[in-house]
Amino acid sequence: MSVLSGIRVVEFEAIGPGPFGAMLLADMGADVVRIDRPVAPGDLGPKMEGPRINVVGRGRRSVTLDLKKREAREAALALIERADVLIEGFRPGTMERLGLGPDAALARNPKLVYGRMTGWGQTGPMADRAGHDLNYIALSGVLSGIGAAPDAKPTVPLNVVGDYGGGGMLLAVGVLAALVNVKNGGAGQVVDAAMTEGAAQLGAIFWGLLASGNWREERASNMLDGGAPWYDSYRTSDGGYMSVGPVEGRFYAELLEKLGLADAALPSQHDRKGWPAIRAALEAAFAKRTRDEWSQAFEGSDACVAPVLSFSEAPGHPHNRVRGSFVEVDGVMQPAPAPRFSATPSAVPRREPARGEHGAAALRDWGFDAEAIDRLRLQGLGFQGAA
Questions:
Q1: Is 192 labeled as catalytic in the residue annotation?
Q2: Quick one: what percent of the chain has pLDDT higher than 90?
Q3: Residue 170 lies in a domain
């Protein structure tokens, strides 16, 4: 048994944050059935060279429906009737036009948690506009603080701030909170998760720092944005990098000791005017050894130093190996389910299903008998496997 065993989720095919939220629920044991289009859309998400391996699609089963057809929409409602959660990531109004919006879904299933994932939110003057992660975090204010120098343009980060941290993870938190409300006797409801708002929440600390006068809005001029020399990464002799982050004075002292700079005549840690001199000293010190040599030198240290690992290197690090932080699924290395549960641990996930794969088994598990499955098939629901 996993922590969400017994929870049924209907997910409508999408890209990015919605599927990530569904992945988190599936990782924790929810039974997620994804409604896919009969044929893969030709213009959904970034173009890929060769086959697409979608780790975010793991852990669920698939049925196919052409939602442009009335009969198929009725089949979707039959699934929604038996679900605890619905997840969709279309533009606002799309599900309503299909006859699958919150009013229709909650009329059929009053206990349903209806999760909606968008960039701008369901309302507001920009709600109907297209966008991607970079646009959403730009509007949130967070992108303005990411960059290499005060006069440099904002740096394009990986799409973890908007799509995944501020999007799919926010959606999952909202869905779980609404589920608790239902389990406590409350009604079903809509969860409106917007990446702009999720990204803003991830940056909550900076609004506090700004209000207290402890944050400058010039990029790379603060303690946590690369402005401070003791919160940055440094190139090693072999071209690798070490991350350095000893914010506290005692940890900073240990950093200087490990680097052989304890007796150097350096400015004090928080003397902004002295930061260039400290940075130059750290750059020169780290350039003397390889990344692996520095990793060994800081082994067991509280100096807040760690090697910058590539995606392919991270699973092999001893700490990650001991914890089992990564798993291999059908030959694809990927992050293991998290967080950890002591009494109801998450299982190793299944790979992403092909369109319609295991759909018949999913329908049986959801309580559809052979007659009902045949009726759904006539309404356009497609799946692999005998009913």
A1: no
A2: 91
A3: yes
